[in-house]
Specification:
Blueprint lengths: L3 E4 L7 E4 L9 H8 L6 H6 L4 H6 L1 H13 L4 H17 L1
Antiparallel strand pairs: 1-2
Helix pairs in contact: 1-4
């Protein structure tokens, strides 16, 4: 997988690491307000309690959390992919 940097499409100030599959790169700072939404379910609140740096570094983790905040649920595949990504990031650090 090849990563490269591109300017955020919202603020045009920050660079975002992306792959060729991502069409609309948005930086963490622009998505921060959306990510601060209230999660009512205590199980999911605990699920999304990971270090802020993980959200800052990984667009996929941000998109999963945003999908939960928008639609109120996640599929089993999304949950497993989120867990796997977090595990990989913890091993690297």
């Amino acid at each position: 997988m090849v990563l490269y940097k591109e300017l955020c499409r919202k603020c045009r100030k920050n660079y975002v690491k992306i792959t060729s599959k991502e069409k609309y790169p948005v930086c963490y700072e622009c998505q921060k307000k959306e990510l601060d939404g209230k999660i009512k379910d205590s199980k999911m609140k605990k699920f999304f309690e990971i270090p802020e740096d993980f959200y800052r570094e990984n667009n996929f983790l941000r998109s999963i959390k945003l999908n939960y905040l928008r639609y109120g649920n996640l599929s089993e595949k999304q949950i497993e992919a989120f867990k796997k990504t977090v595990r990989n990031m913890k091993q690297k650090s």
